[in-house]
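Before relying on records like the one below, remember that each one covers exactly one chain. Contacts with other chains, cofactors or solvent are not represented anywhere in the record.
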Amino acid sequence: MTVRRTLVVGAGIVGLSTAWFLQERGVEVTVFDRIGVAADASWGNAGWIAPALTLPLPEPAVLRYGLRSVFRPSSPVYVPPTTDVRMLRFLADFARHCTTRRWTSAMEVFARANRLAVAAYDDLAVGDSGGAVTEQPRLADPFLAVFTAGSDRRLLTDEFERARRAGGEIDYDLLDADTVHSLEPMLGDAVRFGVRIRGQRFVDPPRFVEALADAVRARGGEIVTGAEVRGVRDTGRGVDVAIDGGDAYSADAVVLATGARLGALARGFGVRTRVQAGRGYSFTVRPQSVPKNPIYFPAQRVACTPLHDRFRVAGMMEFRRPDAPLDPRRVQAIVDATRSLLRDVDWESRREEWVGSRPCTADGLPLVGRTRSERVFVAGGHGMWGVALGPLTGRLLAEAMTGTPDPLLRSFDPLR
């Protein structure tokens, strides 16, 4: 099948990256989104391109912690009481993957992906066909993970060592209290231990995704916002996409990159793996002096990122339906967990309170590739790692649609 024109459903970082890399290979693209560019998980996340921390989400420590506390609204991992049978099945399947053997197997896949992920960002900065993305990642040096207890630091470094044994490339140093505070004076007195992780990057997510959209437009791509896609049909010669309100578009192929809502359109093409919303929360504050680099609190599962003139504080994993309203208890839980760890922050003056739906799979691996239709492709299920792996996903999928698939895509098979 020759692909000359493709429709992409979803204008987050994954969908727009796919559009950009398709354009790089000479394909005409139109992108649809039901709201707008970077409207969901691509807007309010931490913005980390951190291979050292891009690890499989289902892992034994999550399960042990979760069994004790998943029903507490203050817990970093929270499951509201539910009678949703499909949700309960997802949680049971997720728990089944929280074993050392399954984590190691998934980590071997992530190790291969992480070695390619940063290079995909470098591709976006150049672009053989013009239209380079102007907003670029910044080097995070130092990238600090900090702790109040040495035992918590050992949990992270033990995970790093397991990741190394599975092929991960992680370069880090242990830091004492004095060194940690000299590197980041904003840290509170409760912080006593640190890890400096080398070779990581970060972006301002809204700025980056808007710049990516501008690059797609500069190459002649169309981005249609406020367009709710109601149906996709393989006609045998191409695909038809029906938009709410009666409009219809035709092309050689379609890419479904709709985040936590992926199943609604992909299920009819043989994609049975459930994509569950793992909702994350964030807000911004304006401390007296904004740190220049990210700060990670692993024990609290809170990620902090400087966004030029403000400081984003993000965290939590909440398994809930994507359209549920923001739960203020979850925002307060982040504040309570972080208050003693950062100084000179007016927590009551926070802004941009946000909740977004990370698209999670039970085995922790994305869904990227062809469905049972040779004209319908999916790109999603990245969990917390949409920013880290979005450009790589776009590059791999564009290559598969117009040439030879990379062997890595076998592990991301949407029909598994």
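The mean pLDDT is 94.
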